[in-house]
Amino acid sequence: MGLRIVMLGAPGAGKGTQAKRVADAHSLPHISTGDIFRANLAQGTPLGTKAKEYMDAGTLVPDELTCALVADRLAEADCAPGYILDGFPRSLPQAENLERLLDDRSQRLDVAVNIDVPDPEIVGRLTARRSCPQCGRIYNLTYDPPRREGVCDDDGAALVQRDDDREETIRERLRVYHETTEPIIAFYEERGILKTIPASKMPPDDVFAQIEELLAAVRAG
Ligand code: ADP
Ligand code: AMP
Questions:
Q1: In the structure, which protein residues have their CB atom closer than 6 angstroms to any atom of ligand 2?
Q2: Residue 103 C-alpha to ligand 1 middle, in angstroms?
Q3: Per-residue model confidence as pLDDT tens for the chain (221 residues)
Q4: Best mutation site among 6, 7, 40, 60 for ligand 2 pocket (most ligand atoms within 8 Å of CB)
């Protein structure tokens, strides 16, 4: 049975960290809209240049642009057995758009996993975030440092800090999250597929174990 999973949570809640692990464990594509925008930026595409304006400001890339991108990605063959969406949807129009897209194919999401972490913890996590530009693995200088400083454990690439992980941008991203993204928690609750993990002070392995438990329950029906 395939699985269609949406990861919800504030910026820095651990969506990317967990989505990568779940994707590896279940052989599903990990679709992060943020990663797609950053890859476009690195390649200098018009989409990347456009997205940068919003990313640098800590605001959301417009819904039409983001939804079109996701529709194209979900139409690719590797998405047939399911996928994990990380960072999408991020607004009610995006959630509605995704629902219509799935309806058109007589499909539905299996679960929306909401990783719940309070704002004060988020700021500390994001200022210490580093990532591998090669494989996408995410580290944290405080909670999950690489074995050798500044270098990815898996492929030896030099780790980078995201431009938008500066404190003032983080505060704006949190504001946008509460105003525009948080209402989609109720949207998925109404559809009966919301599962919230209270992840304050919870180590990544424990969050992963909880996600695996709830995915097993979803699979069992
Ligand atoms: P998101 O994708 O939700 O923005 P990330 O997965 O990139 O969040 O995680 C943000 C930062 O917090 C990273 O530096 C990551 O290593 C760290 N992190 C992720 N999960 C936890 C956790 N359970 N406890 C402490 N730090 C974490
Ligand atoms: P992320 O990597 O998920 O933290 O996303 C980084 C940035 O990319 C966000 O702050 C937004 O500017 C943009 N972005 C990512 N996903 C979306 C989305 N679904 N809708 C709008 N903007 C997005």
A1: 11, 33-34, 37, 54-55, 58, 60-61, 66, 87-88, 90, 94, 164, 173
A2: 32
A3: 579 999 999 999 999 999 999 999 999 999 999 999 999 999 999 999 999 999 999 999 999 999 999 999 999 999 999 999 999 999 999 999 999 999 999 999 999 999 999 999 999 999 999 999 999 899 999 999 999 999 999 999 999 999 999 999 999 999 999 999 999 999 999 999 999 999 999 999 999 999 999 999 998 98
A4: 60
| pTM given for the model | 0.96
DSSP 16-67: HHHHHHHHHHHT--EEEHHHHHHHHHHHT-HHHHHHHHHHHHT-PPPHHHHH
Among 55, 129, 161, the mutation site with the greatest number of ligand 2 atoms within 8 A of its Cβ is: 55
166-169 contact pairs (CB < 8 A, 24+) = 166/127, 167/123, 167/127, 169/56, 169/57, 169/58
* Ligand 1: centre distance to CA 19 (Å): 11
Ligand 1: centre distance to CA 214 (Å): 20
